[in-house]
Amino acid sequence: MRIEVHPTHPQPRKVAQAVEILRRGGVIVYPTGTVYGLGCDIHQKKAVERIYQIRQLKKDHPLSFMCPDLSKIAHYAHVDDFAYRIMKRLVPGPYTFVLKATREVPKLLVRKQKTVGIRVPDDPVALALLHELGSPIVSTSAIYQGEVLNDPDDLHARFGHADAFVDAGWGGIEPSTVIDLTGDEAVVIRQGLGPVDVL
Domain for residue 168, yes or no? Predict the structure, then answer.
């Protein structure tokens, strides 16, 4: 199913349509503010497993998830003062933060080091989906055979296994910047769209 939404003012009816699919355990392709992502409700274990299948990922490949704001992150990760100060400056934005996971995070999403990747997007469509759903969206980049897809027609064709494609037009090709905040200093694991000179 292809759901065409306005990129800056997503129509509530269409957002609700996509969220209903997520609530029923579906997987969607959706804009994240960086590249398009494959997403599902964090509480739908079978949907998380389907993301691994669709992307043909190994089980040890870390998936991150999206939260609508900073306050929700503390439910799923341990945020000390140091991490909070950095995140407050960079959220919302194209940054994924690696933090120590709480017990609220499903085991499937916790890495060996008991950490998790969390992001607060600054994309109107992604935020509308998150607010309507009321829980985080598990997410991984919509990559096909090593290539980031940003053409809506390509995305629709390549990810036909997904239950819906939330089409907000052309996407980006640069992923988020990944910052590890589990230690005493911020460590950039992957340089992506977000600048790091603010750290």
Answer: yes
In a domain, 10, yes or no: yes
Report field, pTM of the whole predicted structure over 0.85: yes
Dig out the tokens for 45 from the structure.
Answer: 């274990």
Residue 27 lies in a domain: yes
Express each pLDDT in 152-192 by its tens digit: 999 999 998 899 999 999 999 999 999 999 998 999 999 99
pLDDT tens-digit readout, 68-105: 999 889 899 999 999 999 999 999 999 999 999 999 98
Assess contact for 49 and 43: CB atoms under 8 A.
no
Question: Which residues have a Cβ under 8 Å from the Cβ of 197 and sit 6 or more positions away?
Answer: none
Are 125 and 31 in contact by the 8 Å Cβ rule? The answer is yes
